[in-house]
User: What shape does this take?
Amino acid sequence: MSEPLPAAASDVVAPSWGLGDAVAGLAVGLVAGGLLAAIATGVTGKVDGLPVTIAGLVGLWVGLAGVPLMAARRKGSGSLGEDFGLRLVPRSDIAIGVVAGVVGQFVVVRVVVGIFQAFAHNIDVAQQTKNVTGNPEGLGLAVLAPFLVLGAPFVEELFFRGLVLRSIARRAGRVAGVIGSSVVFGLVHFQTGMGAASDAALMCAIGSFGLLLAFLAVRTGRLGPGLIAHATFNAITVIALATSH
Assistant: This one.
């Protein structure tokens, strides 16, 4: 379990992308996301809401998707499939992914939140999720849904289970790649607003789901199962938001 992931770019020339690109992608994404969200706030006069949420996502994705694409072209094979495992085998990946997404929502998240609730009784992850998404409803939720169910899984799997996991694994092995990418995944999703316990519970729950996604990426050697699992997980969240109003 300590050898690097296979077939990163080619058997002849090793790719030169790595942790520096991962850090750059995260930095660019956070800056661009904050900037676009600030612009949306200035235009709408509101510090939250659908335009601000979407603007922040788009800005974040500039870094999370843009940097892996540039890294593959300039420092790797030129193929996201070869460099980061961006491949989908429908016959197996869809079934595996759907099951993993359901397990993530109804087992992993509930177990992690349950642990926090054993020590703090003011945990409200449902409300925290509403805060993170801007709590849209009706047409607003319909507009946001494709960003959450299609855009986020694609971009985040490419970055966290593609670039980040493989960059760490090349230096320190697969186990470190799985754990490290999951920690970064959880930290990036950290949000404040519902108290320290709820904030930490949501971060750890998402990070734990990241462990499952990372395991799928390492076990299969591709991002396909994780893409479907992530989409399923987020689709359940969207349905929960829709039925909570």
Summary: Residues 81-243 form one domain.
